[in-house]
Target: Major facilitator superfamily (MFS) profile domain-containing protein
Amino acid sequence: MDVESSPAAGASVDWRGRPCRPRRHGGMRAAVFVLVFQAAQTMALAAVGSNLITYVFGELHFPLSQAANVVTNFVGTVFILSPLGGFLSDSYAGCFWTLLAFGAVELAGLILLSVQAHLPQLKSAPCNMLTMVGSCERASGFKATIFFVALYLVALGSGCVMPNMTAYGADQFAGAADKDAKRLPTYFNLSYFGFCAGELVALTAMVWAQTRYGMDVGFGLAAAALGAGLISLVSGVVFYRNKPPRGSIFTPIARVFVAAFTKRKQICPSGSSNPANGGAGDPAATVDDNFRHANKFRFLDKACIRIAPEPDTEPESPWRLCTAAEVQQAKTLLAVLPIVACTIVFNTVLAQLQTFSVQQGSAMDTRLAPGSSSSFAIPPASLQAIPYALLLALVPAYELLLVPLLRRLTGTRSGITPLQRIGVGLCVVALSMAAAALVERRRRDAAASGGGRLSVFWLVPQFLVFGVSELFTNVGLMEFFYKQAAAGTMQAFFMALFYCSFSFGFFLSSVLVSLVNRATARGGRRGWLGDNDLDRDRLDLFYWVLAALSVLNFFCYLLCARWYNSGGAGGSGEAASGEAASEDDDDGKGLI
Model:
């Protein structure tokens, strides 16, 4: 490749490493292939996670509380591995190859799960765990090893794939023509629409297949869906814009902390990381004068202090003198961590909808027409499809109707800022747990009085309310985190922070289940969640605990959002991604 055809540093390239052409590469045409892959991967993962508790409890014979923890630990591991995928992509491999490699790992895990579910010698002997009729021996030894190896291959693959799917699709609009670049908020809505479509198919058709034909068929369909998604991803290779990796994304941030520590005794001058100082000789034009977090974490500004060199000494190394841009990136990473922390309880609520709410449905009348002789029964795991069916209607309505209205009212391109959107979702989620607690109390009372089983449709409100909450929270988080990264350096890793909040939420669910059982089992009493029978458990009280935590978490978020927007001169996270002068520079507007 000659010098004239070489891409500029940081410029996007095509699949052959040549500079991208705005009219040929990127834009919505390229993003469609990624969206199809995202929908297929979501479908595959949801087909495993949504009904996993039924498989672990019913066919591997784990006790209910342990089965719930297997599910939440699996989902937590999926999301906690997302920073690994973001790091490898941003630093070394690039989004496309990371997606392809770890998509193949996930596919291998799904095939192994399907094989285990199909072969009787790899499962426990048949048994009814509710009546304890049969040999209810928990799977162990080689059987358990096969299961956990397959399950965590799926976790590794999907965890490293997820942050790169959204980031790679959004990369197709970075540096594109102005018309395409302005469609980035629309892309995030479409991305979530594809996610909901994948979830809906998994929670209806695939769960029905699992219930009707067996878990081996369900896992096999999940593998087929992922395989089709990988084909779609490869098919769009000639249209993609690819950001070349630039080496370890953590090294510049580590240098900031090391340099600030070594100069901890220096007096930090006012604006040491501002253009007036220039850091390590940076041109002022490359640094945002309105950086929002300039007055936060001031100890890091010492990394930019230039110490006058002694005669005949070498200039300071990068580990002792950092650029202003590096300090700003380190500050941005620290500043978003409280926002991540405030979404953990939200995802703990999601964990209940994938575990205990499924078991609630199993203890209710699942017939499509309650009280009739209809033989068609709704699989309890399919109840999780309710919020996604709602979102398939709400996402287009939000984009086509509500966003234009809000845009005229607020002057913000996306209608409301990402932080405001997150705040609305965190406020609403408490209502979902309150509805769940009320319904569970009614179901339990009906069972105790011999009044028959409540219809499974009583669970619809808690899923509907959570669906509305997801519409605001998750799309807001995706857009917020993507815009925090400096141009071309850490998009996938910052997107991984979005998925990390899922991980911490599911792990917190496991911890809460164990703590509640231990705290409520004192004095010889049975714990709230210490039995395999929901009629004897107190799931309703556990739901009320989560509702109270959600309310407390919302007020904590208000404080964190106010702190995040404090300081600076009105700049925003978009400034860090090279859009400081654009009309989309709106994260700093309003409290949340």
User: Anything to note?
Assistant: The first strand starts at residue 127 and ends at 128.
